[in-house]
Amino acid sequence: MLLANTETIPGYRIVKYVGLVQGNTIRAKHIGRDFMAGLKNLVGGELKGYTELLTEARQQATERMEGHAKGLGANAIVNVRFATSSVAQGAAELFAYGTAVVVEPE
């Protein structure tokens, strides 16, 4: 599956638009990560536990979006975007979306 955050993929032409595809996941903070993040706030620096959490969430949302596209017969997704939102105290959604297409080499 080819993914691009642009309208086209260099070296390929779009032969069919399939439609909007999406994938999401909702993740909650882990008590251990939250405690360590609180300590890190005192001294500054990267909150690695949260970085890992969001990286895992982005990967899962992307995989779900790809699965949606494959189920519709697409072999690529263009205009890929990510969004986040808070859905509850201590929980956030990561949402991936794009336009599923069928491409072929030029």
Chain-wise SSE layout:
Blueprint: E1 2-3, E2 12-28, H1 31-43, H2 48-71, E3 76-88, E4 91-105
Parallel strand pairs: 1-3
Antiparallel strand pairs: 2-4, 3-4
Strand count: 4
How many structural domains in the coordinates? 1
Look up the CATH topology.
Translation Initiation Factor IF3
Q: Unreliable segments (pLDDT under 50, ≥5 consecutive)? A: none
Q: Quickly count the helices.
A: 2
Instruction: Compute the average pLDDT.
Output: 87
CATH class placement: Alpha Beta
Shape: elongated
Secondary structural class: alpha+beta
| Residues in helices, as a percent range | 25-40%
Task: Write the element-wise H/E pattern from the N-terminal end onward.
Answer: EEHHEE
Question: What amount of the residues lies in strands?
Answer: 35-45%
> What is the CATH superfamily classification?
Hypothetical protein apc22750. Chain B
Strand order of the largest sheet: 1-3-4-2
CATH architect. name: 2-Layer Sandwich
The rounded Rg comes to 17 Å
Give a quick account of the main beta sheet: strands, pairing sense, barrel closure.
Answer: 4 strands, mixed
State the distance separating the first and last CA atoms: 17 Å
Could you explain how this protein is built, in words?
The protein is an alpha+beta fold. It has one domain (2-105): 2-Layer Sandwich (Translation Initiation Factor IF3). Helices cover 35% and strands 44% of the residues. It has helices at residues 31-43, 48-71, and strands spanning 2-3, 12-28, 76-88, 91-105. A four-stranded mixed β-sheet has the order 1-3-4-2. The two termini are 17 Å apart.
